[in-house]
Write a structure and sequence with these properties.
Length: 594
């Protein structure tokens, strides 16, 4: 039997080390706290020097407001801060720091030196702290601002020091941290050095071009050159920044930068909203890149939810989630302005651009898919047309139709449509484009009693026995999409009606193919709901497939459909549907003008 120990008050030194364990997890943790103090002090330049990945030395120098000499000792006392005074202040925090724990926690597990000089004071003053023991206040030399030097982290808690990773790993954490703050505060210059090596040095980025250069330096030029700008507002809530193109998505979320009211955060709710916003333009398991800033009333968010202030709570989490999700969906559905560069390997062409359409400026064409497909049987294929007839059908550049995707002129290998536009050549992946058009039509009609085409005689479909349960689990979804299917016996289905949109498809083959796709994708579909997964598979299986010869009339009908369809820049798997090669790029290929 364990003998009960009496309750006793913990010693101050032990309390400080316990608190330090929550705030200072590794060298990057203390760099974070010191940088946030510098930003709260109004610094416009922050220099960070480290040695041994920060374990031996972290030195942070800023040009902020400084700390008066009579407040230096108080600055390293627990729960002493200038940032909040009352409980009401805690409910609407606008500074990065507020608890008054950082400096005393760091000082309790290191050898710390603090020197500061306010701008209106002639001389700096400083003091040293070793393992929580405060030294005397002494004169020091320093320009206006504050210097914090932290040596021998965890020297008095060797057990915790053993948990530090390799120097390169700890250095990487610090570098990524400073990059994150560099993307938050374009009005501040940041520099990180390890010994004599400069790891990052970014000046103040006052202009939009300088900001784009900083983003390109940290996130890569491919990201910022192809990214879609987003700026959405609803009442007092605003989301702005940049969204990565779906085809540039990654296997991890390391390129997702989130800031809420000027604070770098990792938040599951925001991550979920982003993923749902991209849900039908990404491959399964891929993660989009983004640089996003969310602004809302300080009282609408609780930042006092995590010792390191990395997580937060929203007062109305559902409202925030839905706003972010819909904002991302709208930004992807309404790409801004002109074509954006691709992230694909097109080294044979300089700066090939991939398209997004500005749907706000497009009129909705009335050319339903079934009429597009019905013309396929009656119209002659390009291979049956004479060369002269085909040439005669090609308009001159000045005679192009108003469509944003131009006028079709040819088909390549039964896969790609070539269309002529005033500024160059549009290349369209017919299957991917048609898949998006069908998918958006099916989504629009979902749950709205879609038009059906009844079959003269039911088509019996033989399926594997293990697919029978799969069909039963999706039977209601098939019905909402416009199918009427009965189970005659285990492994035998009777298709009695199909959506009018797919009236010319082989009903049996379509149902069988969709079930096989759902079977192979069980539990891993890139779309979040079973319904969207079903619609995505229907669209993919019924879209134009490679090798099918299209007439110019059919090709132009598909182009007009794309212009009237949201998210037509990508299929529902995330692949781009069209690309633009400008006339100037074509001229460079053939050295014209040289």
């Amino acid at each position: 039997m364990i003998e009960r120990a009496p309750i006793r008050q913990l010693q101050g030194e032990l309390v400080d080390q316990i608190a330090a364990g929550e705030v200072v997890e590794r060298p990057a943790s203390l760099v974070k706290e010191l940088i946030e103090n510098s930003l709260d002090a109004g610094a416009t330049r922050i220099d960070v020097d480290i040695e041994a990945g920060g374990a031996q030395l972290v030195r942070v120098l800023d040009n902020g407001a400084g700390i008066p000499a009579d407040e230096l000792a108080l600055a390293i006392a627990r729960h002493a801060t200038s940032k909040i005074v009352t409980v009401e202040d805690l409910a609407a925090i606008e500074t990065l720091g507020f608890r008054g724990e950082a400096l005393p926690s760091i000082a309790s597990v290191s050898r710390l030196k603090l020197i500061s000089r306010p701008k209106a004071v002639e001389h700096a003053m400083g003091l040293s702290v070793e393992g929580g023991r405060v030294g005397e206040l002494t004169p020091a030399a320093l320009a206006a601002g504050t210097l914090v030097e932290v040596r021998d982290l965890f020297f008095n808690t060797p057990a915790r020091r053993k948990f530090l990773r390799a120097e390169s790993t700890e250095t990487g954490h610090i570098l990524r941290l400073i990059q994150r703050y560099a993307l938050l505060r374009f009005d501040v210059a940041f520099r990180l050095r390890q010994g004599s090596k400069t790891l990052i040095d970014v000046p103040v980025a006052a202009s939009s071009e300088a900001q784009r250069q900083r983003i390109g330096l940290i996130m890569g030029r491919d990201f910022i050159e192809a990214a879609l700008p987003i700026d959405m507002r609803s009442g007092s809530v605003r989301l702005w920044g940049w969204l990565g193109q779906p085809e540039a998505a990654r296997t991890s979320s390391d390129q997702q930068y989130w800031y809420v009211n000027g604070r770098a955060v990792r938040d599951k709710l925001l991550g979920s909203a982003l993923r749902l916003g991209y849900r039908d333009v990404l491959y399964h398991g891929r993660q989009p890149a983004c640089l996003l800033y969310l602004e809302l009333e300080p009282r609408s968010v609780d930042v006092n939810a995590h010792p390191q202030k990395l997580e937060l709570r929203f007062r109305d989490s559902r409202q925030v989630h839905d706003f972010v999700m819909r904002a991302v969906q709208r930004a992807l559905a309404v790409p801004a302005g002109e074509a954006a560069p691709t992230a694909r390997n097109t080294s044979w062409l300089p700066q090939v651009h991939q398209g997004g359409l500005d749907w706000r400026e497009l009129s909705v064409a009335d050319s339903p898919i079934n009429s597009l497909m019905s013309r396929a049987e009656s119209a002659p294929s390009p291979s049956e047309s004479s060369v002269s007839e085909l040439s005669a059908s090609r308009p001159a550049v000045g005679e192009l139709a108003d469509g944003a995707l131009g006028q079709a002129i040819a088909q390549v290998h039964g896969i790609y449509i070539l269309a002529q536009r005033a500024d160059g050549l549009i290349i369209v992946d017919a299957h991917a484009a048609h898949e998006r058009v069908i998918y958006e039509r099916l989504k629009r009609d979902w749950g709205q009693d879609p038009a059906q085409q009844r079959l003269l005689t039911p088509e019996v479909v033989e399926i594997a026995l293990h697919e029978n349960d799969l069909f039963l689990s999706h039977q209601a979804d098939f019905a909402q999409a416009g199918f009427e299917i009965d189970v005659l016996a285990p492994g035998r289905l009777a298709v009695r009606a199909v959506p009018a949109l797919l009236a010319r498809e082989s009903a049996g083959s379509l149902v069988r193919d969709v079930l096989q796709s759902l079977q192979s994708e069980q539990g891993s579909h890139h779309l979040d709901t079973a319904a969207h997964g079903l619609l995505g598979n229907i669209a993919c299986r019924s879209a134009i497939h490679g090798g099918r010869k299209l007439t110019l009339v059919e090709m132009n009908a598909l182009l007009r459909e794309m212009e009237a369809t949201e998210r037509a820049g990508h299929c529902n798997h995330g692949r781009p549907t069209w690309a633009l090669v400008t006339l100037s790029q074509l001229d460079r290929l053939f050295l014209r003008g040289r």
